[in-house]
Amino acid sequence: MKRNQDSATNIILVVIFIFIIALCLFPMLNILARSLSSQNAIATGKVSFFPVDPTLDSYRYVFVDKSFSRSMIWTPILTVICTIISLAITALCAFPLIYTSLRGKTIINILIILTMYFNAGIIPNYVLMKDLSLLDNPLVLILPGCLSVFNMIILKSFFYSIPDSLRESAEIDGANPFTVLIKIYLPLSLPVIATLSLFYAVGRWNGFSDALMYLTSAPDWHPIQLKLYHLIQGSQSIDTTREGIGIGGVLPPQEGMRAAAVMFATLPILILYPWLQRFFIKGVTLAAVKE
What we know:
Elements: H1 2-24, H2 26-36, H3 39-44, H4 57-64, H5 66-94, H6 105-117, H7 122-131, H8 149-161, H9 164-172, H10 177-188, H11 190-206, H12 209-214, H13 224-233, H14 254-288
């Protein structure tokens, strides 16, 4: 059984590796498509299924853009910070709700679940961020979305599956609730914690709407996905004005630079997922069914 699971894992890793390689070659494949559709190539009969004059200039142009490089450094840092804070708040919110002696537990659960169905809207949220002085502040990317009720319910369901006798024996020995959480519940919850880490990390990495609304005058704090949004929409372009850029004054196609930028923004998550996929499957399964 274990050998079959290892074989399936190896197959998944090979497929993901092939997909990553294909994604890395996408800018050059884009140049191939342009060469196939070129009127000159068709007129001369030199249509080829192989790239014509392949080049990696698109990647070089992306690296040269200072704002894009800054976003590539800032976004992983932001993702790690948000993931750690979100996991801490999620655990602190889910753990007290497993106590049957908690006063007002039913009302607290109702109020928390109501936030999943009702939202104030964009304008009230913007006014709130303004009143909290979070506009054009990098904290606006961290604090408002630091807790997901859905993820909290998953973690609480997993906590319920841990026998109460472990908690009660620790409390008899004098352990306080924080000690019980840190030394008993969290070590036993590593699969679901890895799953929630992936949820929070992917959500933050792919998020750009909050930065689009709240960081209008702070481009230095724009995450990579917002840069991609502006690049694809055409409102911004890769900075190609620096001295020494270009070969013979010819710039690579804008589509090729967009493809290279998308590859750089997608590659980290593609690399991270294979190492967490076994925790991902186990964590979701165990959190969904109470043993």
